[in-house]
Amino acid sequence: MLEEMKRRLAKVLSPTPSGELVGSASVKAVFTIGKVGRVGGCGVGWGTLLRSGTLRVLRNGLVAHEGKVSALKIYKESVSAVDAGQDCGVQFAGWEGVEVGDVVECYAQPKDKAGSGD
Questions:
Q1: Is 9 helix (H, G, I), strand (E, B) or coil?
Q2: Domain range for 104
Q3: CATH number for position 102
């Protein structure tokens, strides 16, 4: 039992992904699409989900997954970003465990200022 508690605490206390938290969404539905696989139908609650960002999926307060976006779409159109108040489909690279009720956090890397001439 002690080992199980340690494992759960490690997940809860796991460090956030590198970068800045720029948006959050909730999974409203899950779709299975032929050759594509499982896609989370999400509603962006605040901020922005970025195609280039790192996503962390929280389930019941625990980290269920952390990784990259494989596809980000509004209806059938691929997009680079989805803003608060919009719905979108998110396919997670290498992971199909998304479930209704999951919370998706998006982290963006700070912009590289090197070579900007400033």
A1: helix
A2: 2-108
A3: 2.40.30.10
- Write out the two tokens for 13: 């206390």
**Of 99, 109, 102, whose CA–CA distance to 45 is shortest?**
102
Residue 101 lies in a domain: yes
Q: DSSP secondary-structure letter at 96?
A: -
The answer to the question of residue 91 being in a domain is: yes
- Please, which residues have CB within 8 angstroms of residue 8's CB and are 6 or more apart in sequence? 62
Whether 89 maps to a domain, the answer reads: yes
What is residue 9's predicted lDDT score, i.e. its pLDDT?
57
pLDDT single digits (tens) 47-71? 999 999 999 999 988 889 999 999 9
Tally of domains in the chain: 1
Are 107 and 56 in contact, with CB atoms under 8 Å apart? yes
